[in-house]
Amino acid sequence: MASEGVDKLPEVGHEQVPVVRSKVVWLVPVLRLLAFFATLSATLVMALNKQTKTIVVATIGTVPIQATLTAKFQHTPAFVFFVIVNGNASLHNLLTLVVSFVCKKFDYKGLVPLTITVLDLMNVAFISGGVSAAAFMGQLGRDGNSHARWNKICDKFETYCNHGSGAIIASFIGLMLMTSISTISLVRLRNNYNRIVLNSSVGV
Amino acid sequence: MSLLKRIPLFVLRLLALGATVSATAIMITSRDTADVLSMKFEAKFSNSPTFKYFVIVNAIASGYTLILLFFPAKSSCGHFILVLDLIIALLLDSSISACLAIGQVGKKGNSHAGWLPICGQVPKFCDHITGALISGFVAAIIYFLILLYSLHNLMNLFTISQD
After folding, report:
1. Residue A157: which domain range?
2. Is B37 on the interface with A (CB under 8 A)?
3. DSSP H or E run through A132
């Protein structure tokens, strides 16, 4: 049976297998573009997160002694992990976007779509780890912990905290987009697998 | 699904149940008191929202695994269960990541923020948290194995289809 424009299999007594070449081909690349922008903005906003503040520590006579305190993202390992993971994910999104434009027949069979789907799942796991660590670290900075005698720092470094919150929100959006990309790819792989199984059982 | 395919999945789910239940139990029983300058202060897991989140997520995961152990394997719900497995695996992953971040601050402190480490004063609490984290790690890894196994069963994911 030659391949037609619309792949519809004959009745084999099981359920009708849906069309393989889906009509909404542009869905996954668009989602990937949005996820790329989300993770890239999260990386950049957190990596450039820095605030310097001069506060008066003591007064000797009439001369106030000032101390310059800096809040940088490198001070917290959770934020360092966040930047690394989001950078990794944005690079992955960019590369798979390029691959999906270069390969004209992206048919969800063979080794390449499988590798991309597995890498997608791995990046989703990494991002979920990074974003939750950064979110709880930010909560600790915002509220402090009275039981451990840890003071909150967000009242002194407001810009730092706001930038950090923005980066975490962007990363959450990227996480949701990448999870939906993974789910859609898995569903399409399953459809392809069903088509192959039914084809081989019919004996085509 | 044939019995040969269901047995490894059942064993994996049993291991995951053990890991999540033990992670919850170890975290709940973590408690230590310290006498600092004649002031008693007590470290419990409920002092930190992160550890409460860890307990909640592991409790949800253990309940879910328990229900799925007695679930007959019908392939009609197989894909829905796969999506739920993915969600639970991601939640477990995020809970251990958050606890690691807070635990690292507790162990080493953060000199830039003026946060002193607390593990020197409450060592039993820190040991319990470490044990719960190890259990949580094992649970997350086993859940990812369950995910890979279900993916391979449902759609023969790891054989290269030549067509």
Report:
1. 26-203
2. no
3. helix A111-143
Do B105 and A140 lie within an 8 Å CB cutoff? yes
Helices B78-108 + A77-102 axis angle, to 10: 150
Residues 6+ apart with CB under 8 A from B103: B126, B129, B130, B133
String of DSSP letters for A106-122 = --S-SHHHHHHHHHHHH
Q: Inform me whether the pLDDT recorded for B73 exceeds 80.
A: no
- Number of structural domains in chain A: 1
State both tokens at B122.
């409450």
Residue A14 lies in a domain: no
- Cβ A151–B112 below 8 Å, yes or no? no
- Decide if pLDDT at B7 tops 90: no
pLDDT tens profile A54-112: 877 777 777 778 888 888 888 889 999 999 999 999 999 999 999 888 876 656 666 77
* B156 in Cβ contact with A193 (< 8 Å): yes
- Indicate whether A125 belongs to any domain: yes
pTM summary value? 0.84
ipTM of the complex: 0.87
- For chain A, say whether B81 makes contact (Cβ under 8 Å): no
| Secondary structure class of A147 (helix, strand, coil) | coil
Q: What is the nearest CA distance from B101 to chain A, expressed in angstroms?
A: 6
- CA-to-CA distance for A28 and A123, rounded, in angstroms? 16
Number of alpha helices (DSSP H) and beta strands (DSSP E) in chain B: 4, 2
